[in-house]
Amino acid sequence: MVSSPSSSYLSIIVLLLSVLLIDSASIEENFTQCLSSYFSSNPTQFSTIIITRKNESLFTSTLDSTAQNLRYLTPSTPKPEFIFTPLNESHVQAAVICSNKLGIHMRIRSGGHDYEGVSYVSEIETPFIIIDLAKLRTINVNITDNSAWVQAGATIGEVYYRISEKSAVHGFPGGICTSIGVGGHIAGGGFGTLARKYGLAADNVLDAKLVDAKGRLLDRETMGEIPFWAIRGGGGGNFGIILWWKIKLVPVPKSVTVFTVSKTTEQGAEEIFNQWQDVAPSVIDNDLFIRVIFQPVSAANKTGRTISTSYNALFLGDANRLLKVMQQNFPKLGLTEKDCLEMSWIKSVLYIAGYPNDTNPNVLLQGKSTFQNYFKGKSDIFSGQVGAFKELSRRLLQEDDPLLIWNPLGGALLDHSVYDSPFFYRSEYYYLVEYLTSWHNASEDVSKHLDWIREIYKYMTPPVDTQSRAAYVNYRDLDLGVNKKNATNFTEAAAWGNVYYGINNFKSLVKIKRKVDPENVFRHEQSIPVDLSIKV
Ligand SMILES: Cc1cc2nc3c(=O)[nH]c(=O)nc-3n(C[C@H](O)[C@H](O)[C@H](O)COP(=O)(O)OP(=O)(O)OC[C@H]3O[C@@H](n4cnc5c(N)ncnc54)[C@H](O)[C@@H]3O)c2cc1C
Ligand SMILES: *[C@@H]1O[C@H](CO)[C@@H](O)[C@H](O)[C@H]1NC(C)=O
Ligand SMILES: *[C@@H]1O[C@H](CO)[C@@H](O)[C@H](O)[C@H]1NC(C)=O
Ligand SMILES: *[C@@H]1O[C@H](CO)[C@@H](O)[C@H](O)[C@H]1NC(C)=O
Ligand SMILES: *[C@@H]1O[C@H](CO)[C@@H](O)[C@H](O)[C@H]1NC(C)=O
Ligand SMILES: *[C@@H]1O[C@H](CO)[C@@H](O)[C@H](O)[C@H]1NC(C)=O
Ligand SMILES: *[C@@H]1O[C@H](CO)[C@@H](O)[C@H](O)[C@H]1NC(C)=O
Ligand SMILES: *[C@@H]1O[C@H](CO)[C@@H](O)[C@H](O)[C@H]1NC(C)=O
Ligand SMILES: *[C@@H]1O[C@H](CO)[C@@H](O)[C@H](O)[C@H]1NC(C)=O
Ligand SMILES: *[C@@H]1O[C@H](CO)[C@@H](O)[C@H](O)[C@H]1NC(C)=O
């Protein structure tokens, strides 16, 4: 029988207890510990930049703040262990170093507009944390040398606004939706109304600052031209954490012209659309960008729905010249003077993004989305005519809230060769089609919507003898395939790699990934694989 423990027993128990306590240290405690030793500072310093479930409301509001797709915020979606919200560059470097040391899986978020939420949800690996760059959103515009340094957490709308604040005749060729983050957006290419005049956002990047897999802060010169090639279109979350882009500003006229003209099936939409397909990516002046939005609307007789096709356009010039260009190249639309609105470039940004026409441009400084919804998107990049108007209309009428958006490529995209950047789709005849379906009710049957979009996508399969399927990496689609945990399999990844980048560019990206991130620190469902087995 043991009466009372001796002092040596006691010290063993204390020792055991302390080992147990250390062992039970949470990921967050270990991470905080690592950060404080990195900065030789007090751990409490990080309590406000590491957001955990201990403060449930703050955790939820931070997680939800920029998550654009509500499908990835449902209660059953995996949640991060914590959200790290760096306030400066060294915080990001330390986060990479500490995550590596502790074996913690990171997701990187800038604007949170990833179609499949891979910047804030890992469906393949837990635990994980989010490095959320929302507090790093400085923008320094220098009109004298036509450039700006923009931090990854800024939205493209903030960038447009800050440029317009300094000059009425400068702009930047980025995306149409103003709440997308420049971190992910430019990494995946960045396409908008100025693409036919000036190319992609990524084609107009002069320099960048990135934290690599080892936690080093590199710029164009120190990373080298080959990684610098990869980060301009190779897709976010692959090669490091972009902290800054140095972008090249482009000239825009003091006054531009916009219009939106809608035609229903009954108003000859099919014939007009066929002419648009003939001219939009190639024949038409590069100053003119016209996208077409297909969606169901109430029919004129109010007893059913019909398909409306909206021609939504930006012209870098005045209405007079626009009318001449339209008369010459696209007469079937029947554009008239009263359809044309002349305004400043920054006002046209708001117009094309869908803000009401009296909105003050400073709305862009809100730096966040005005809506969130449940959605699923897919994309195709086609060359040549799609003669499927009636069948597409029939299918659109079967879905609650679908959209088909047709964007012309061509123009200045051809100023670069297909291997000049990871963005492969630079031919005179390409256009980018976006399929979208959205809903607003959490308890709706999701599979109904997913089935609908998968069916229309299947229907649109291009003829096998003309081209293989192509898509835009910024419209991420996990149906194309998913990397298994820590996947390194090139063959599996080709299911999306070849589609987003074309086979040769994809091989180059794998080669670069192997060099700059051999441990696969930056990985997600569709990251570039580190395949050591194949020769590239
Ligand atoms: C409503 C809506 C409208 C859109 N409109 C357009 C458009 O007009 N034109 C267009 O081209 N695209 C458009 N997109 C697509 C958009 O460009 C992509 O979703 C883009 O990736 C968003 O960037 P983000 O920073 O907001 O996204 P996030 O979700 O934060 O990130 C997207 C991807 O990039 C990675 N990433 C994020 N930040 C960094 C970083 N700093 N360094 C490295 N990797 C990072 C993430 O890990 C993730 O893989 C739209 C998307 C939505 C939802
Ligand atoms: C925290 O670190 C300790 C000491 O290295 C380790 O034993 C423990 O497993 C870590 N905790 C977690 C949750 O990883
Ligand atoms: C949670 O965070 C918010 C915002 O910082 C703060 O106002 C609140 O007091 C915190 N709640 C708790 C329980 O710490
Ligand atoms: C970032 O902030 C930390 C304090 O959290 C500080 O120690 C460090 O010097 C800062 N780094 C830079 C580059 O400002
Ligand atoms: C802007 O660019 C010019 C020309 O390169 C340079 O001289 C000037 O210092 C820059 N201004 C700022 C504020 O960086
Ligand atoms: C009403 O319009 C729809 C779509 O244009 C059409 O399909 C339907 O036949 C019309 N109904 C009547 C009663 O005209
Ligand atoms: C704004 O829109 C309204 C309604 O569509 C229209 O009447 C008005 O003329 C527009 N104003 C300008 C400046 O375009
Ligand atoms: C959401 O969908 C559920 C189930 O279909 C339905 O009961 C509910 O009324 C819907 N809510 C709204 C606001 O439409
Ligand atoms: C890679 O994936 C393909 C397709 O799933 C499979 O056939 C092949 O065996 C895998 N290769 C390796 C090395 O795991
Ligand atoms: C992932 O693979 C790398 C090597 O490619 C290895 O070093 C690392 O430990 C792996 N991580 C996990 C979580 O399996």
Helix/strand layout:
Blueprint: H1 7-23, H2 27-39, E1 50-51, H3 56-65, E2 83-84, H4 89-102, E3 105-109, E4 128-132, E5 139-142, E6 147-151, H5 156-166, E7 170-171, H6 182-187, H7 195-198, E8 205-211, E9 217-219, H8 220-223, H9 225-230, E10 241-248, E11 250-251, E12 256-264, H10 269-279, E13 288-298, E14 305-315, H11 319-329, E15 341-343, H12 345-353, E16 374-383, H13 389-396, E17 402-408, E18 430-439, H14 446-459, H15 490-501, H16 503-516
Helix pairs in contact: 2-4, 15-16
The structure holds flavin-adenine dinucleotide and 2-acetamido-2-deoxy-beta-D-glucopyranose (9 copies).
Q: Please, could you describe this protein's structure?
A:
The protein is an alpha+beta fold and 536 residues long. It has four domains: 128 residues, 2-Layer Sandwich (Uridine Diphospho-n-acetylenolpyruvylglucosamine Reductase, domain 2), CATH 3.30.43.10; 113 residues, Uridine Diphospho-n-acetylenolpyruvylglucosamine Reductase, domain 3; 193 residues, 3-Layer(aba) Sandwich (Vanillyl-alcohol Oxidase, Chain A, domain 3); 51 residues, no CATH class. Helices cover 31% and strands 20% of the residues. It has 16 helices and 18 strands. The protein has a seven-stranded antiparallel sheet with strand order 15-12-14-13-17-18-16. The protein has a five-stranded antiparallel sheet with strand order 5-6-10-8-9. The protein has a four-stranded mixed sheet with strand order 1-2-4-3. A hairpin with a 6-residue loop joins strand 13 and strand 14. Helix 2 crosses helix 4. The protein is globular. It starts with 6 loop residues before the first helix and ends in a 20-residue tail after the last helix. The relative contact order is 0.12. The N terminus is likely disordered. Bound molecules: flavin-adenine dinucleotide and 2-acetamido-2-deoxy-beta-D-glucopyranose (9 copies). One 2-acetamido-2-deoxy-beta-D-glucopyranose (NAG) binds next to helix 3. The site of one 2-acetamido-2-deoxy-beta-D-glucopyranose has 4 residues, from helix 15.
